[in-house]
Amino acid sequence: MFENYYADTINSKVLYEEATTIIPYGVSSNYRFFDPYPLYLKRGKGSKVWDVDGNEYIDFNLGFGVLEVGHSNEIVAEEVYNAFKESSILGFEYCKAIELAKIIKKRYNVDMVRFSSTGTEATMHSIRIARAYSRKKKIIKFEGHYHGSHDQLLVNVNPTKEGIVPSSLGIPEEVIKNTLIAEWNNLESFEKIIRENKDIGAVIMEPIAMNMGLIPTKLDFLKGVVELSRENNIVVIFDETKTGGKYNSGAAGYFNLEPDIKVIGKSIAGGLPLSVIAGKKEIMSVIGPGKVAHGGTFNANPLSVRAAIVTLEKILTENAFYHMHRLSEILESGYKDIAEDSKIELSVTRWGPSGSIYFLDKVPMSYKEFIKADFGKWGTYFFAMLSQGVIPMAGFNEQWTISIKHSEEDIRKHLECADNAIKLAKN
Ligand code: PLP
């Protein structure tokens, strides 16, 4: 499986060996590591990236879904350069943060907005805000959902046994004893937890589960979760770190459901770090000195703010979404044709500019169904894609993303390579 990879990526291997002497596993985020060694990239432009061996790849990972504007987008680059000439960080509130807050308020139908830099920080703060507002301790999350790498929510992301399982070493039981786990797309499991527990202050979810590939959401289930939460005074948090930038008004807008708090991140700042905690005024008003702590040196820094304003106002327009969704649909139907022609157990899902494939007879609807997929076949497919110059997605639990810079030719090449890769995986 790795033959071509070894031959094509010698310099990545050399860098990996050097990196491991100083950076654990040679990577700055565990999720960038894969066996036998990860790729080391040096440059990206539009829909493409280049590695240290000079290999060119059409990139459908796009920084784990960040770069809907494409790599090194010209409009973002110019704005960030101009912003930097004025300042990169001011240490006081940046005047244009208000402009960005207004854009977010209108686009995502929220009352108030606070900025952080990453999805992890924003979900962590959203939980604190919800607890302070509800004055209740317990929180519910869903199995297989990922909300960043802080302790309270790094639970049952990829459990290998029953019960409440921390998804990292170093998380004390005491820290997660107030985190309860429900099954995605299963309202009964959610209802049971509410029946059996008191003191539940918040429920957090990815409205479309995008850390198990891309699991479709049953609308009745999602509506049920929101309604039951309202009845029981539980604050509803949609973690739209990934979904927020994939439709004009995110998944909440798409489903026409209003959570109490939305967390938005990844693609909204065109490649710069910026995340948003947004919600109803009465809830967001708990934040402030002497009340709920929310801080961050880099929060709403001029570079990220200016990048987000141009990304949302000038780049991620209705036309841009039309383009990304249309190409994504072509990719989805191409994969479905490959599945049918090759007679392999392969299921395909899509939502907007993103989609995923599973080596499984049907699309999974929960974590328990997801882990039945054949990940060995996925590995063969992945390395066969890399060796043909396509990064299809970052891992078996990830999804493709289309940017405004992808072309029909990129999709055609992706499908041609996928056809070869899936045939290889079948044998
Ligand atoms: N929430 C979701 C749904 C995510 O997918 C991620 C990252 O992939 C995060 C939160 C964490 O975001 P970050 O990596 O910016 O901390």
Automatic annotation (TrEMBL):
<dbReference type="InterPro" id="IPR005814">
    <property type="entry name" value="Aminotrans_3"/>
</dbReference>
<comment type="similarity">
    <text>Belongs to the class-III pyridoxal-phosphate-dependent aminotransferase family.</text>
</comment>
<dbReference type="InterPro" id="IPR015424">
    <property type="entry name" value="PyrdxlP-dep_Trfase"/>
</dbReference>
<keyword id="KW-0808">Transferase</keyword>
<protein>
    <submittedName>
        <fullName>Aspartate aminotransferase family protein</fullName>
    </submittedName>
</protein>
<keyword id="KW-0663">Pyridoxal phosphate</keyword>
<keyword id="KW-0032">Aminotransferase</keyword>
<keyword id="KW-0413">Isomerase</keyword>
<dbReference type="GO" id="GO:0042286">
    <property type="term" value="F:glutamate-1-semialdehyde 2,1-aminomutase activity"/>
</dbReference>
<dbReference type="GO" id="GO:0008483">
    <property type="term" value="F:transaminase activity"/>
</dbReference>
<dbReference type="InterPro" id="IPR015422">
    <property type="entry name" value="PyrdxlP-dep_Trfase_small"/>
</dbReference>
<dbReference type="InterPro" id="IPR015421">
    <property type="entry name" value="PyrdxlP-dep_Trfase_major"/>
</dbReference>
<dbReference type="Pfam" id="PF00202">
    <property type="entry name" value="Aminotran_3"/>
</dbReference>
<dbReference type="GO" id="GO:0030170">
    <property type="term" value="F:pyridoxal phosphate binding"/>
</dbReference>
